[in-house]
Amino acid sequence: MQAERVILETDAQGNLIGLPRLPPVSRLEAIFLVLESGAQATERHPPAQLKDSVIYLADAFAPALSDEDWEASLQRTVGQINGDPSAFR
Fold this sequence. Notes:
Layout: E1 9-10, E2 16-17, H1 67-81
Antiparallel strand pairs: 1-2
């Protein structure tokens, strides 16, 4: 058994347009899924609550932290790994 995906379209009366060529003397099983009509890709935006907390792809190459902040974050992580209680504050 082979599967082949074919998208069929209908006219205003619901009649199929441009039926595909079918293999001779064969049995076919068809499952019809109606695709949403008029569904178009829209530009997506984050919710307003997240406006200033989201890094957009255009900003992806900008450093999120300064070198000093990055070093402090790294030192805090090292302290947490080593079990320093003050590093968890």
